[in-house]
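Human: I would love a firmer grasp of how sequence relates to backbone shape in proteins. Could you go through the record with me and say what the backbone is doing? Here is the record:
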Amino acid sequence: MTRVWKWNRPVTVREVLEDLQQERSIAYTTVMTVLDNLHQKGWVRREAEGRAYRYEAVSTRAAYAAALMNDAWSQSDNPAAALVAFFGMMSEEQRQALSDAVRMVQGPETVEPSEPRQREAGQEEPAQEQNPGSAEGADGR
């Protein structure tokens, strides 16, 4: 699948074979069998072109990764704990990507600083600034 996603267009067995052969020795029939198996499982669609087929991914790599994460999360008996454990495994770069994704899903009206400031013990939380273009008052109404 990595090779099919890499080109982001319909590919032939020969193209995948030639790409793989730059790294290792592999037979044409092996690549053909793998692509046929992916087609039978519904991961790629194919269209005849002469005596060969062109194979194209059914979904994006991102959609595949999202489906894997969703499947793993839905199998947990405690989804909140699974998420906490998952977040604990993330690198700083991954946490930033997650924050960016959450902001994209929430839309432009939800703006939070990318690096929250930590307060020292006994220090009061800073007052929230009112949006100058907002009709809300200080009490949130």
User: Anything to note?
Assistant: The CA atoms of residues 11 and 123 lie 61 Å apart.
